[in-house]
Amino acid sequence: MNTASSLANVYAYLLRKYDTNYMITYSTSPTYLANIIGSDEVHGKIVLFYVEDRSKVKTNFTSPSKLKISKPKSDDLDLTGSPLKDDCEMDAIDEVSIDMNLIISNPWKLEEEYHQGIPVEKVRTILLSEEFQRGSSAKDAAGSVWFLCSGTDASKTLLLQYEFAPYHFQRGVITYMGIVPTYSVTTQTLLHQHYSLMGKGSSLKTFIANTYNVKSNMSLKCTWSTSSMVPSLIDLNTCEVTLKQTYRLCESTPATEVLINQLRILMTIRDDILTHKLAENSDISREPVYRCGIGIEMGELRENINKVMTEISEIDSSNSTAERDIEEVIQSANTRKLSDLTDKLWDILKQCSSYKDLKMAFNILFQCAARCNIVNTPTNKNRLAEIITEVANRRLAIPCLSGSEPLELLLEIGLEKLYKDYEYIFVESKICSANDLKNKSVPEDNKENAGVVPNVRKSLRNAVMQDSAALRKTLLHNDVKHTASSMTNDILGFKNSNFDEHETAKTISKLLQIHCTLEHLLMIHLHLNITSVYYEVCDQLLRKPPRMVDSINDSLEDEMEIQLSVHYIREHLEGKDPHSRRITMESKNKIREVKTTFYYSMENVFPPNISECFGTEEKEYSKENIYYSWLYRKITTIKNH
């Protein structure tokens, strides 16, 4: 029997004995526990005892437990200005760690607001009871049973831990230590508390994690360990640095919003194509839907199409060798002059207000290709570019699009145009070369097919390999059912579209990954201004498998966690108070081991149902930074065999 199933059996036994009076869960640790003791101490699932109280929880509750820190107003805290340009000085990073108003989300989950502690006397009674001892006697069990306490005792006990271990007695306790000034956290103070249970003659190992909040969704975590008997609580020379940040789509800047909106349009077009094909396969006669355009008069549309096909493309003078930062390049990407015909057509055709108008627009386009002298020959390798070229060269008749074909052609040129937008930004910002972006954007298991990205171009392979005789076939109404003759036409004929459901899904997912990478890089630029890490961040993020999404809406989030060299951020953090600190000291001798974890945070990590019981009332501080503080002690005693 494995240890996890043994703990599950213990849970089942305890549930039968105590579920009438207590809530008992078998799941991952609650956030407040994980914050205090750290992820290294939490292994898998735990059993948690608590009581539930939903009477005090309010909708849209905002925690009253955050500290109000009154500071003199200064220009450093002025966060106004351009929505893309952050006018704050770099020294304002410490203010961000201090100013609790910038932290808009609670550090706990919504369901944890229902948790309420049990009086510590009752918990101790349970631990000493015969029923609990019988249930906890499984020799092969491993893991912990935790009891959430009310904190009303003299020691302000919040959690008690009973841990299963085959050769040791292990018990743990978390107590609330009150609100303390940041300057009071010193090595001497911590050592005094740690050695109170062990004595100074024992060994000492210290693990430290300091987290600095750059923004509410962006933090720098510095971690290190030391065997020094007098450990330093700040180390910006040898520590490991982890940059963690979350991009929320609803927080996109106006410049990047143009890009994500294009991706939303493409996702919607693909959804409408699939909806039509599903109805078609079910023998439901229904015209496809196009719902992404703002509307354009047919006369204006005809004029615009004629113009882009017959006028020589202007050279984009904005593409200069002058040094530009990433936000300047993003802005210029949205206003630069396009050179390829199908890129220009995307901007025109997507404005159509309905499927009927879109279909008519393609008809106007093909008539223009057949009758006009096309100066701006398409250079993109997509299906629409091939059709225009063949019609203009009199090798194909004017095609008659049917069903979802207009949407499919529009989707393909839109995907290619959006990829080129991202390529322009990454290359012009000197983040990486075009080849690097292509290679990074192809999964490792598909390198042999890594010809070009996006994957829409792979769908053209069949069309490119047609012989000259097949290319002269007429593109007339292609309403052939899926029969043996239709399969022959697919091989020998020249289809109006090469839409592939799976390839377009992979392409959209990859474009979303590229966009999220861009947003993460922009956050680094705006708030840390570390340009030297762009390539490293880009390389790591784009090599990850892209996630498949069903929709692109405001609730979408993308998290990034990446290692950085400490020299990149040393000057930004020197002299700053960490937003939270976790300091773990371990000592042991022949008979027992003592672990003491000190956790400090500028915000209360416990929900109001719990924290109000031990008096973390809101307070005013005017001159000093303040921490909430907790103490976790774990004592391991070796059993006699």
From TrEMBL:
It is found in: Chromosome, Centromere, Kinetochore. Keywords: Cell cycle, Cell division, Centromere, Chromosome, Kinetochore, Mitosis. One of its GO terms (cellular component) is RZZ complex. The keyword Endoplasmic reticulum does not apply. One of its GO terms (biological process) is mitotic spindle assembly checkpoint signaling. Its main location: nucleus. Transmembrane segments: none annotated. Pfam families: Zwilch (PF09817). Component of the RZZ complex. Essential component of the mitotic checkpoint, which prevents cells from prematurely exiting mitosis. Required for the assembly of the dynein-dynactin and MAD1-MAD2 complexes onto kinetochores. Its function related to the spindle assembly machinery is proposed to depend on its association in the mitotic RZZ complex. Belongs to the ZWILCH family. This is Protein zwilch. The lineage of its organism: Eukaryota, Metazoa, Ecdysozoa, Arthropoda, Hexapoda. The gene is 106082196.
